[in-house]
Amino acid sequence: MVPPALVGIAAPFVTYFLLGKEAVGGLLLGVTVTGTLLGLYMANAGGAWDNAKKLIERSLGGKGSLEHQASVVGDTVGDPLKDTAGPSLNILIKLISVVSLSFLPLFMK
């Protein structure tokens, strides 16, 4: 988890030193918009895959069928999407925003 956190911390600095203070504003806007949309997508897609497995277990094929085996593969992807990857994007958005705002006096010089 250290390398992803370092990317989140270093992104505002790299953007500032390579492109300038206006680009840091663009970075914040881009991270907020894309992170929010991607987080919503991940939460909804993961929930859909999880619910598809439950539906197949309940009515369409039952446990042990080929449909159920395929849905288990989908649920293996869906659970991390809805439980970890989607919500972690919220933390990334906050991390980049807090780092950028904390070093705002440096960026304004």
UniProtKB/TrEMBL annotation:
InterPro entries (UniProt xref): PPase-energised_H-pump (IPR004131)
UniProt main location, coarse: membrane
UniProt membrane topology term: Multi-pass membrane protein
Keywords: Ion transport, Magnesium, Membrane, Translocase, Transmembrane, Transmembrane helix, Transport
Keyword Ion transport: yes
Entry's localization field: Endomembrane system
Segments traversing the membrane: 23-43, 91-108
A GO molecular function held by the record: inorganic diphosphate phosphatase activity
Pfam family, one: H_PPase
GO cellular component: endomembrane system; membrane
Highest taxon of the lineage: Bacteria
Name this protein carries in UniProt: Sodium-translocating pyrophosphatase
Origin species: Candidatus Cryosericum odellii
Lineage of the species this protein comes from: Bacteria, Pseudomonadati, Caldisericota/Cryosericota group, Candidatus Cryosericota, Candidatus Cryosericia
